[in-house]
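Lab channel / #folding
Pinned by the channel admin:
"Please post every new chain as: sequence first, then the structure tokens as a reply. Keep commentary short and put observations after the output so the thread stays searchable."

First post following the new format, from NK:
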Amino acid sequence: MAKILLVEDDIRLATLVQSYLAQHGFIVQLQSHGDAVAEHCRQFQPDLIVLDLMLPGLDGFGVCRQIRPWYKGPVLILTAKQSDIDQVLGLELGADDYVVKPVEPRVLVARINALLRRTQSNTKTDQQELQFNRLLLKQRSREAWLDHERVDLTSYEFDLIWMLAKHAGQTVKREAIHQQIIGREYDGLDRTVDVRISHLRRKLNDNAETPFRIKTVWGKGYLFVADAW
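Reply from TO:
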């Protein structure tokens, strides 16, 4: 039974969501104050965190920044405003997915299950390494090294670079990335993958204006260039 830490200051909503998730086999604990999330997380050791952005004390952005250096599980952001989505992604908080409130309970469960499946799949993968000249990717430890220096990647970003690198020299379609990494169909509008690719390019010293390591194949997807490292 997967353990979920639900961080939400609307007690009525939190209680309803907790009850619904419990009916679907999850162990759920509640936290309503941003300042207490880190300690609660250390004690509870959740498999996944559902994190509201608007919290008393430390807000969801601050919580995510605080826990991401050591918490390796998925973080699912709850936001009340569509306009916050770019900020959630753009600040590199390390969130793995987001839903906009009010969210249908079945949609929330589907997103949670998708994130947990991806995480469980990663932990079952045999130890592997991919080497491209000065770039080394380590699947077991989920680390990326460039020029013998460790690159600080979020869980989502590592999964993305690993998927692209495994298909080096081939165009990986955006639809495939959405299905495998995000766990849902691409709707033609979601910018999640584009933003994450932008983050990867910057962290891996690619050129933002004219990328030569992770190229955009317009209308199709992305190409990992094996000999560009």
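NK: The chain is about 40% helix and 20% strand.
TO: also worth noting, The longest strand covers residues 3-7.
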